[in-house]
Structure formats: C-alpha cells, structure tokens
Specification:
The chain is an alpha/beta fold and 334 residues long. The protein has two domains: 215 residues, P-loop containing nucleotide triphosphate hydrolases (Rossmann fold, 3-Layer(aba) Sandwich), CATH 3.40.50; 77 residues, Lrp/AsnC effector binding domain/regulation of amino acid metabolism (RAM) domain (Alpha-Beta Plaits). It has eleven helices and 14 strands. The protein has a six-stranded mixed beta sheet with strand order 6-7-8-3-9-10. It has a four-stranded antiparallel beta sheet with strand order 2-1-4-5. Strands 12-13-11-14 form a four-stranded antiparallel beta sheet, covered by helices on one side. Helix 3 packs across helix 4 and helix 4 packs across helix 5. It starts with 16 loop residues before the first strand and ends with a helix.
Length: 334
Amino acid sequence: MIEQSTSLNGAAAEPILVAEQLHKAYGPRAALRNLSFTLQPGHILGFLGPNGAGKTTAIRILTTILEPTSGQFYVGGISSDHPREIRRKIGVLPESLGFAKQMTAIECLTFFGQMYGRSKADAKSYGMELLKAVGLEKRAKSLIGSYSRGMRQRLGIARSLVNDPVVVFFDEPTLGLDPRGQQELLSLVQWVARERNVGVVLCSHDLPEIEEVCDDVVILRNGRIIAQGTVGEVIERGQHNVVRVQVAEQSVATARQVIQALPNVVKVTPITATGDWLLIELASSGEFTKNMEKEVKAQILNTLVRADIAVLSFESEGGRLQDVFFQLTEEEAE
C-alpha cells in the first residue's frame, strides 16, 4: 500500500483517493481483480499496464462511469455509494477531447463553470484565471477549431479544473505532441498537483514520462496489481544488471540471435514499438562478479561489431522504470 505523505506542518496527510478491493467482472471474465491503492493530495500517481491490463476499466469505475462488481472507493472522504457527489469532486482529461470547435475557449469554460453551479460572471472570471494559468489567456476568444493539438490539451486541463476538483485523471495528455509540447504539458500536470494540492492519476504509455513526473506508480497486468509503491521502490524490484542497446530496425532479429547466444545472457527483449531498442538481462547469481559483468558487456559490443550490426546507442546502467515494467509484465505473461 502506498504510504501516507506528510504535510508541511509535519502531520500525516489523509489520502484523497482510496480504492478498496475493486473488482469488475463481465460474466465469467474478470477485467479487474481486487484493485487497492491510495493517492495523497499533491501527489502524481502513474497508472500503468499493457493493453488489456484493466486500466480503462479501473479509470471508468473511479470516474463513476462504471459500477464495480464488488469493492468500493472514496474521493475526498465521499463513498462510491454517492457517484453524483464524487463527480463534483473530480476532473477528467480524456485521451480524446470532444470540444465544440465553434466555441471560443472562454465560452467553453464559462459553459462548464455554469454547469457546476457558478454564476455566468463568476464562471467567466474563473475561466479566464484558468486560461492564464495554462498559457492560453491571449487566445481566450479564439475559436477552439483554430487550436493546435497542444493548445486543445491545455484547454482540456483548464476544463478539468473548473469545479476545483480534489482528484484529476489525465489520460495520455502528451500523446501526439512534439518534445517541447510534451515537456510543457508535463509541467502543467506538475503544477496541478503541487500548486493546487490536487491528487493526479496519470495514465501514459510513455514510461520515461511517468518516471520523470510521478511520485507513485501502480502497474496492472490481467486486471490485478503486480507492482505498486513509490517510483523508486518499484524500480528497486527490477534487475539492475541489464544492458540497453539500440540497433537499426532491420538488424533487430540478427542482433537478438547473436546476443542471446552469449554466455551469461539470460534474455533479450524488444522494449519499444519498433523493436530497435533491446533490453538484455544478464545473469544475477552470486558467482557472477562485477568483472564478469563488464566482460559480458564488452562481449555484447564486440559481437555486434563482428556481425556488422551498427550500434546506434548502448546503455549499460540498470534501474529504469521501463526496464522494470517490461521485466514484470513479461514475467506475468509467461
């Protein structure tokens, strides 16, 4: 279980989101199996898992779209028995935004602010505050249809905050953005958590992104948690005697074959969609000394060179979240 955080005055902070044994079944098939975790205010929780792991089902339950088969959860002390009240306490940035393109940004935020009970004047004033906070103040009166993908994502973050939520759910907020846009969005995610003291649930397939901004992480596989804790704690679960190597896409199959044949190489696994990055796990027995480890790493490079395989990048240090993710989900799949 993720532990309580400590507030500025030294007191333990109460979790803002608590999930207890959430289970969801569709007939005989269990999509979610006894999900339990907590989220502290001001913390960012990375919610991870391969496709079909149960992430979408879990988020739909936590945002009151689905009812669990069993179990319960609490948001700001409010039980899931009261979904209408919970909806007033949460904000959501879905992967696919559905903004009306013929509305301006301020019209949009004013509309949603009024839906949460604000007067038109108050909703408009608060909407302008949010647009300023996400860097869209100068485009407040521009049609949303003229916005870039990054601007729409910023507007989506502003939209998720109109009701002053205590927990927000961000689903792939940086998807489709260039590196600069990704960094800007991640800074906004951190601002939401740190400056507004909001609990953030961040779903992303970008594991370095999760490692960079998240405090805690939950990894799902086949509907159940296989790892959870702080990012550092989860990374510690992985093997550290690993090597990452990047080769040309057309050389991947040959590279895997020649590396796997080396002594003290346990497994070679593609770790990107294109497969050009390979994760190489080395032996971890007590007899496998540091000097032997260095020799094997040198052998890997020499073997690739002798096989006329261009090495685009070579990283010999372990201890990354993406390494642990692939190790754990690979183990579970076997």
